[in-house]
Amino acid sequence: MKDYRFKIPQNIEFGMGSLKKLPEILEESRSKHVFLISDRGLESLGVVKRVKDIIEGAEISCTEFLDVMPNPTIDTVNAAAKLYKECGATSIVALGGGSPMDVAKAAGVLANYGGKITDYEGNHKVPGPIVPMIAIPTTAGTGSEVTASAVITDESRNYKMTVFSYEILPKYAVLDPELIMTAPASIAASCGVDALIHAMEAYVSVHATPFSDAMAEKAMELIGGNLRRFVANRKDEEAACAMMAGSNFAGIAFAWARLGNVHAMSHPVSAYFHVPHGVANSILLPVVVEYNALADHGRYEVIYNYIREGNEEISGFKPEMLVDEIRKLNKDLGIPERLSDVGVTEDLIPAMAKDAAVHPNVQANPRQSTEKDIIELYKKAL
């Protein structure tokens, strides 16, 4: 067994209605002025007001920043960091999916250390702890509340850059399954498959360890057994709890084992064509799983047994059975089958492949991949 290390430095509160414990967490963090980062969609649903009322009800000041869009840009990060410093806040609450959390992490870096967010691009360039941050996920998908990365779109390069540092992990996370029970079926589906992919890619990663395996396997068990059920009925409390916990465990898994070609390839798809991250991942998944089958050493069968329908005995497992099961899952959930279905065109495949090939996740993929390999994978997914 190879050497490995891990730590779980965060405080995580899980449970139906756990949002009500936010004042206790703020008191523990000694925050007197909260900077609330979220988006207009959650504002329209009344979720932002609900959280702000809880904060202000505890006699804590609150300043909102709600101009976060999917695939957030450097300009958004700069605007958030500027307002944070101007308003005199002492902590950040990130409310939403991966986009508000990515902006919060990046703004927290700039608020403490200044400069440009591109100065921190890559691995371990953040010099120390960032602004105290509380993450409140409203989707069961990104796992951003426990991950050490912020993904920000650099529009000047059509590139989704990554800041990776364990210094940007949120200090606290509040996991309240009630917050994901109003999601539209399409969002629940794409976010749910994204969470499943986090667990799958961490599980087959060349950096996988017994610790990340434990998190990934439990995540696949929870998500695989409840994803269809949750998409069918978001009011199903048991399924919502399973999805929220599964997404969290998957995030912990890939925070320490990294991901693979699916995520490396999906980032350029989102950067060039503005395809939602979870949708891009879901479409690419069966193609990459089929490609990686050559490197499988028994893990595909484990994944298959977590996500397949039914409990009947299966004998003579073959990797293509997992590929077929993934395609069926996507179809059941109403996820598009091809990249062309979401507006991706062949002319930009070389540019996307060039960006994907240098992404760090490619180095964690179980099958070695060249830029030429990635071009062929994009064409197959098209």
Structure notes:
This protein is of the alpha/beta class. 49% of the residues lie in helices and 11% in strands. The strands form 2 sheets. Strands 1-9-6-4-2-3 form a 6-stranded parallel beta sheet, sandwiched between helices. Strands 5-8-7 form a 3-stranded mixed beta sheet. A hairpin with a 4-residue loop joins strand 7 (149-154) and strand 8 (159-164). Helix 6 packs parallel to helix 9 (237-257), helix 6 packs parallel to helix 11 and helix 7 packs antiparallel against helix 9 (237-257). The longest helix has 21 residues, at 237-257. The chain starts with 10 loop residues before the first strand and ends with a helix. The model has no long low-confidence stretch (mean pLDDT 93).
The residue ranges in which pLDDT falls below 50 over 5 or more consecutive positions are none
What fraction of the residues are assigned to beta strands by DSSP? 5-15%
SSE class: alpha/beta
How many strands in all? Answer: 9
The gyration radius over C-alpha positions equals 20 Å
Spatial separation of the terminal alpha carbons:
39 Å
Q: What is the string of helix and strand elements?
A: EHEHHEHEHEEEEEHHHHHHHHHH
User: Largest beta sheet: what is the strand line-up?
Assistant: 1-9-6-4-2-3
Work out the helicity level: 40-55%
Categorize the overall geometry. Answer: globular
The average pLDDT is 93
Please tally the helical runs, counting DSSP H or I stretches of 4 or more residues.
Answer: 15
The largest β sheet comes out as:
6 strands, parallel
